[in-house]
Specification:
Strand 19 (350-354) and strand 20 form a beta hairpin. The chain is 25% helix and 21% strand. Helix 2 packs parallel to helix 3 (114-125). By secondary structure, it is an alpha+beta fold. The strands form four sheets. Strands 4, 5, 6, 7, 8, 9, 10, 11 and 18 form a nine-stranded mixed sheet that branches. The chain has an eight-stranded mixed sheet with strand order 3-12-21-20-19-13-16-17, sandwiched between helices. It starts with a strand and ends in a 68-residue tail after the last helix. The chain has helices spanning 61-67, 84-95, 114-125, 187-201, 254-259, 282-292, 305-308, 315-328, 368-372, 384-399, 413-433, and strands at 5-6, 32-33, 42-46, 50-55, 73-78, 99-105, 129-133, 149-153, 157-161, 176-184, 208-210, 237-244, 264-269, 275-276, 279-280, 296-302, 333-338, 344-347, 350-354, 358-362, 376-382. It has a single domain (5-399), classed as Endonuclease, Chain A, CATH 3.30.870.
Length: 501
């Protein structure tokens, strides 16, 4: 037992405590701590609107637009917050009278980044109520990490996702993490998450500390953005809210989702720990059980440098072992690494799609600490359209194709044909107009070439052709963190540790 931990007995099917004088009478592998909540699995019949958001494709625009719709309240719970652009929207909201509260983790992996300190001070100066969940010499932190990533607006709409509020999770450009978010316009789910937020944010708790100092420098004005729009109208949908660690391993939650797969199971995870102490990771075991039923199982994990580098990353080894076990058992299961490409710098997602009809969007990684020690939030939505969009994104990642957030893209044959016609027509017009002379490009000096072996000191206005032996081939790229960007990124702790992102 660690400091502040409590032992909890297992209940039998009738709800009675088990007491057989055996170790199995005690609940594990979860570590219970003083003051933790006990939220059960929430089941909802949603009737409101819905929107999916794909990172990094859509950047920070959707999140900024969603936050800008607030009229009364905004509650934010997120592991790290380094984006000044997103913070400026919250600051503007607070200045126009919206009550804004932000809860952050006070002890993330690697410490609090200077950018996050600046953001938190700027928010406080704008009138935002900022608190940090943190432990101390005589204070027990309720959760190892406050790793959730959600927003509540006006107690009616909720944003739940896999990404932190930084340049990688929601880039202002187009390069960043592969992540999923879902936005629900449902008062029931939002109220349930509101109870979680209130429990965690509660100023009476000794492990939530207020941001005391404010910045003398005001946050910049909120960036321009497109108006927020819902992609789907009202419709009946079944949803389950997963509050971790309370219900992370609930048999009717994520494990049940994996157990319902009949045809296809698609999993994207930042990393997977195969063994949880002396047992198999139950999520991975459920994926293998699905494959044994004939379900086609595909698992994608991060293949960026930090996740496969020899002295800290193990994803490549995990993928090899998973594939070897699947081959030995002759199962239709395959795992791959998603290496950085295009706009994706790393896979940071924690999502699942089942049979093209259900989807899990979550902050919880597939590690022991994630499921048993951290505050995590996820939502399972039964909706073929939503699941279809995330399935299409998964398929593009699996096959190495680009993804698009709108209704068309370069993989669309009609769009591609139109683009070719446009480029071809523009080129033809340009070539007709382009002449060497006064109306086009006129060289200011005579252009000539020098033969290989001649004097290589070029004169002004000369083009020098060098022999191949003088042209160096590009060497291998120096190894380093792929996609390192401004601001501290979450880094997975060594030894399968914490919630590094």
């Amino acid at each position: 037992m660690g400091r502040g931990e409590i032992a909890v007995r297992v209940r039998d099917e009738s709800g009675e405590w088990l007491d057989r004088n055996r170790a199995e009478d005690w609940e594990g592998p979860r570590h219970h701590r003083l003051g933790q909540s006990a939220f059960g699995l929430g089941e909802f019949e949603m009737t409101g609107r819905l929107t999916s958001v794909l990172s990094p494709d859509e950047g920070d625009g959707p999140l900024i637009g969603f936050l800008s719709t607030a009229e009364r309240t905004i509650d934010v719970s997120v592991y790290t917050f380094t984006s000044e652009r997103i913070a400026s929207v919250l600051g503007d909201a607070a200045r126009r009278g919206v009550r804004v509260r932000v809860l952050l983790d006070g002890g993330p992996v690697g410490g609090i980044d200077s950018d996050e300190h600046n953001v938190s001070r700027g928010l406080a100066a704008a009138g935002v109520d900022v608190r940090w969940m943190t432990g101390g010499k005589d204070i027990v932190k309720r959760y190892r990490f406050l790793h959730a990533k959600y927003v509540l607006v006006d107690a009616r709409s909720a944003w739940v996702g896999s990404e932190n509020f930084g340049e990688s999770g929601f880039p202002s450009g187009r390069k960043g993490n592969r992540g999923w978010s879902v936005v629900v316009d449902d008062a029931g789910i939002t109220r349930a998450l509101g109870r979680v937020f209130q429990s965690d944010f509660d100023p009476r708790r000794r492990d939530t500390v207020a941001q005391e100092d404010a910045s003398e420098d005001r946050l910049p004005p909120a960036p321009s953005h497109s108006a927020w729009t819902w992609r789907e109208g009202p419709r009946n949908r079944r949803a389950r809210l997963i509050v971790g660690p309370d219900a992370s391993l609930d048999p009717d939650g994520i494990l049940d989702l994996l157990g319902t797969a009949r045809d296809r199971l698609s999993i994207e995870a930042f990393y997977i720990e195969e063994a949880w102490r002396n047992a198999t990771n139950p999520f991975l075991a459920a994926a293998f059980e699905a494959a044994s039923r004939g379900v086609v199982v595909r698992i994608l994990v991060d293949g960026s440098w930090s996740s496969v580098e020899a002295d800290s990353g193990t994803n490549d080894d995990v993928v090899a072992r998973i594939n070897r076990a699947a081959k030995d058992q002759r199962l239709p299961l395959e795992a791959r690494l998603l290496e950085p490409r295009g706009s994706i710098e790393r896979l940071h997602n924690k999502g699942v799609v089942v049979d093209g009809r259900q989807v899990l969007v979550s902050s919880m990684n597939w590690g022991l600490g994630s499921a048993t020690d951290n505050r995590e939030i996820g939502v399972i939505v039964e909706d073929p359209e939503l699941a279809g969009r995330f399935q299409a994104a998964f398929d593009a990642d699996w096959e190495g194709r680009p993804t698009t957030s709108g209704g068309w893209g370069l993989e669309d044959p009609l769009a591609l044909a139109g683009l070719y016609l446009l480029v071809g027509g523009a080129s033809a017009v340009s070539l007709r107009k382009l002449r060497v002379g006064a109306k086009g490009i006129k060289p200011h000096a005579r252009v000539r070439t020098r033969a290989p072996g001649s004097d290589r000191r070029g004169g002004r206005g000369e083009v020098r052709l060098l022999p191949l032996e003088l042209v160096a081939e590009p060497g291998p790229r120096p190894r380093g963190r792929a996609g390192a960007r401004g601001g501290r990124e979450e880094a997975r702790g060594r030894g399968g540790g914490p919630e590094g992102d």
